[in-house]
């Protein structure tokens, strides 16, 4: 199944948190921080949102940073994805 976002929505796949610290300590699953960096999987067309014209500035494949608890979690074909508004994206990682 393919997910196609509407309006100014963006579909994200969270990037896995690193399993070792910089010092080489291996972290267990419960000690890992919630990832904040995500990969853009799909982008909506933009258009009129709340009476304002929205131009989409992110594209598929971009790595982005979002708020820790922003968006809606969905599970499609066993894969966990997050759907957010473009405004919920804080930065593009270059």
Describe the protein's architecture and organization:
This protein has 94 residues and is mainly β. The protein has strands at residues 9-14, 37-43, 47-49, 52-54, 63-66, 72-76, 79-85, 89-93. It has a 6-stranded antiparallel beta sheet, with no helix packed on it. Strand 3 and strand 4 form a beta hairpin. The chain starts with 8 loop residues before the first strand and ends with a strand. The mean pLDDT is 85.
From the structure above, extract its key features:
94 residues, mainly beta, six-stranded antiparallel beta sheet, two-stranded antiparallel ribbon, 0% helix, globular
Going by helix content, strand content and strand pairing, the class is mainly beta
Kindly report the spatial arrangement of strands forming the biggest sheet. 6-7-1-2-5-8
Spell the H/E element sequence.
Answer: EEEEEEEE
What low-confidence regions span 5 or more consecutive residues with pLDDT below 50?
Answer: none
Measured between the Cα atoms of the first and last residue, the distance is 30 Å
* Main beta sheet strand tally, sense and closure: 6 strands, antiparallel
Helicity range: under 10%
Q: How many helices does DSSP assign? A: 0
> What is the radius of gyration?
15 Å
The quaternary organization reads as: single chain
Give the DSSP E fraction (strand runs of 2 or more residues): 35-45%
What is the count of β-strands? 8
Shape: globular
Integer average pLDDT: 85
Short description:
The chain is an all-beta fold. It has strands at residues 9-14, 37-43, 47-49, 52-54, 63-66, 72-76, 79-85, 89-93.
